[in-house]
Specification:
Layout lengths: L1 H23 L16 E6 L5 E5 L2 H13 L2 E3 L10 E6 L5 E13 L3 E6 L2 E3 L12
Antiparallel strand pairs: 1-2, 1-4, 3-7, 4-5, 5-6, 6-7
């Protein structure tokens, strides 16, 4: 009887540890902290010159993009020599305070994952295009 109880205890412990490991892998990127719901607009600026290109104020677009970025798979670019993004995105609250700054590539890049967005040393697997018109 003790042997069956010991086996059940081991099985329960194994399942618990496995669940913890799997749940740890499901965490979000937490790019916006508690401010994810407060993004009111996105300023799009040229990465090198910091010139304002456009401001995105479409609430449904910004909300959807923030959710995608928060839950995206990512790959570290810490030890990679990669080109600068084309644009710097400033995610602003209603008082025009910067919540987060993220790089944006006009073309999809594959730096471990395929995407257009670079946050610190993370390349995010989000391919959503921004509604901006590029000059030829």
């Amino acid at each position: 009887m003790k042997c069956k109880t010991r086996n059940k205890t081991r099985q329960l412990l194994f399942i618990t540890l496995l669940s913890l490991i799997l749940l740890t892998g499901c965490q979000s990127n937490d790019l916006f902290g508690n401010e994810a719901d407060n993004v009111a607009s996105i300023e799009v600026r040229a990465y090198d010159s910091d010139e304002l290109v456009t401001t995105i104020t479409d609430a449904s677009f910004t909300e959807s993009l923030v959710q995608e970025l928060e839950s995206a798979n990512s790959a570290s670019t810490t030890n990679m020599d990669i080109p600068n993004p084309d644009y710097r995105l400033l995610f602003l609250d209603s008082d025009d305070m910067v919540i987060q700054a993220i790089g944006y590539y006009t073309e999809e890049k594959d730096y471990g994952v395929v995407g257009r967005y670079l946050a610190s040393d993370l390349h995010l697997a989000v391919t959503t295009e921004l509604p901006i018109e590029e000059e030829e």
